[in-house]
Write a structure and sequence with these properties.
The protein has about 325 residues and is an alpha/beta fold. Helices cover about 45% and strands about 10% of the residues. It is built from 15 helices and 5 strands. Strands 2-3-4-1-5 form a 5-stranded parallel sheet, with helices on one face. The longest helix has 24 residues. The protein is globular. It starts with 6 loop residues before the first helix and ends in a 9-residue tail after the last helix.
Length: about 325
Amino acid sequence: MILELQKQVWGQLLGKLDRLPHALLLHGLPGVGKLALAERFAKFLLCEQAGRTEQPCGACEGCRWFAAGSHPDVRFIEPEAIARQPVETGEEGDEQEPSRKKTARKPSNEIRIDEIRALASFVYLGSHRGGRRIAIVHPAEDMNAAAANSLLKSLEEPPPGAMFILVSHRPARLPPTIRSRCVAVPVPVPEAKAAQRWLAAQGVRDPARWLAFAGGAPRRALEYATGEQGAAIERILRALAAGERGVLGAVSERAELELLAEILQKIALDRAFTALAGRAKFSLSGAPSGDAAAWLAYARAMGRNRALARHPLNPKLFAAEMLGAMPSGQPRE
């Protein structure tokens, strides 16, 4: 159960029940369980079982409605690309793959102002079940400027009984005015051995390796190890060992370019970390070589390329440019 890895954070949330703020900001790396915590806490607050202490009962009408994704007093605000109806986390408390909405145009990767304005008819009306109304905004940093300004009005003058839970991978991208009106709850990377045990229980082979590749985030590690990305990662790593021509032969689709940029970024960071601190973070570094500052600059460039890689005119040319920009020391043909 991924929530077992975040017992301390769950305890912090329960500790706020006596003076519950109108807005929480759960923030941390992608894949550490933030969304699972937000959903579980929302379900706990909407649970109708008297005397519950640390977990929602799972049996009352409120819990059943939440589990069915039809609770009238909770709303999920997400970009169209991942938008869904509210659904409960799985039996093990994991973040589930949302069901996508079908639209005639390409789904937006932003949270737009219309989605925030639609909350007005929700938070400013009475509760259907006589309790709170809860809005979960995820990822909060994906709000465009107009949407953020619209949400700010509700955060400045919150309606009675309304609560906002913002989930953010990159809270620094949120406007300071939004952050200042939320109680921040950091969600850390879980302890490595506990995360490895959890991954092993999910059937992941070599959990230490995948956890390292995911930067310590167990949910992200599970996605890497068991999803289609896992095979692509293995193929790209083998191609890198074979040299540039091998990589260009392995990366044949635009979807894999972003993954290549991510792998190259992590290799660069491992090279820099090994040179500066004597150890790697993502378990992708060989012997340290070259200048650490050059590797860090290359890592920043690959971070930018991860976004650019979604729309290249020529995938192989783009991959060749990324490989050609590597500092000396990385094996290439």
